[in-house]
Amino acid sequence: MKTFFDARQHDHAPAMELHNGAYVPYAEHRGRMENVLATLSQVGAPRDHGMEPIRRVHRDNYLAFLQSAHERWVAAGRNGDAHGYAWPVVGRRPLNLNRIDADLGQFSFDASSPISAGTWTSAYWGAQSALAATEAVLGGERAAFALCRPPGHHCGADYLGGYCFLNNVAISAEAAIAAGKRRIAILDVDYHHGNGTQDIFYERGDVLFVSVHADPATDYPFFWGHADERGEGAGEGATLNLPLPRGSGLEAYRAALDTGLAAIHDFGADMLCVSFGADTFAGDPISQFALQTADYTPIARSIADLDLPTVIVMEGGYAVDALGANVAAFLAGFDW
Ligand code: Q9C
Ligand code: ZN
Fold it and tell me: What total number of domains does the chain contain?
């Protein structure tokens, strides 16, 4: 399968993150990609599709913030990585405070996604990898894989969070629509709910969002991903959340996945974009499902059985030593 990655995706390198009340080493680090790259045979560098496909998803003020946030943090006399610590939840208004601390709160929803000096460069090239995989599929490949880092599914049109800065799967879906595809299905099989992707397409009837994830009653991102969120307006019924309890293994997972795949089949999509996170793995240090490496192949095979042109983008997965094997097992399911 054609696979895309750009070495500049390594530039994003926050040192620590706030986790369960303490600062711990950042879980979403370059070693994840190194483990995956060691298992992939041919990996292509993406060409540069520029800003236009990114601007189809993200707001201009957010993109300007993301490109300048770390410089502004340093200019304010701060050391290390930038992240928010005050959020405009009460009395939310579209204020323009021109203060880095305020903007970090305005354009984020959590404190677990620091911005380092290389964050914009890495996010930009990760999005370009997603666009290269999309271009390959639009050009006739049955499936292609973008080894996106940083991941994307938690960030929305104008906010970052959950280690995510640019929503790679949304950028892929919008690029496919711009190229003439009419109906896109997005299937999110990361452990966590893809709240950013859901928000971006919540009122859209032409993009179906289906997610199998840990119940947000117990797990991050808590405030999205509940089964009663079904889309609004033209998008009513085009969001399907399939939360599962902690501890779920292959049997429970397959039952939820089959429900999601049936919805995708009924929607009549002409292309599929998959947010693949390997943090559903039993050994994941921050997640609580019980999938085994060998389980990823039959899961992927049932997705492949939809028989749709498929773009796969990397999301989470923090059991670094097993990540390459888990990705390889998933991609093996797409050898039609
Ligand atoms: N104490 C992705 O998998 N931190 N993001 C949770 C739990 C955020 C995961 C903290 C986890 C985000 C792409
Ligand atoms: Zn995740």
Answer: 1
